[in-house]
Amino acid sequence: MSASVIRAARERAGITQGELARRAGTSRPTVSAYEAGRKSPSLATAQRLLAALGAHLVAEDDIVFTDVPVGRGRTVAVPNRLPRLPVERALAVVELPLHVSWSTTDRRVDLADRHARARAYELLLSEGTAPDIAAMVDGALLADLWAQLVLPRAVCEAWAPLVAEATGRLASAVTHR
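RESULT FIELD:
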């Protein structure tokens, strides 16, 4: 477990190392050593520390992207499952990379704005790299917008099975351009 996980959880909880140590039944120097990366807690100890902070460990399958051919020698990055982002990132103001949004000088997008998010997702699914998609596309918000997106047919066909799997509905109601 990364030292930053314990520190971040403690800071979110707003408590000191000493208070965490008291709650978890360990010493402050031990908590400090875990947070500094000088010691690594066992899985049981990490679970106890996080439980004392009102948090828990979650194991998720990695998201793996595949380059899917969409014609004319182009590919789009498609994940094995829809990514989920923390709310603050899913609804953040982001700057689209130049290779995604090259036709405008202001590439900032407020993802909290549904219309702006839809336009950004259209660009990201069509032009974005795997890191772009992983950083800016939230699967639940994508599924919610899916029927309103205007995507090239091949991009839609590449992504539709993921949306259908996530929603349990047929995901072909996207407008093609």
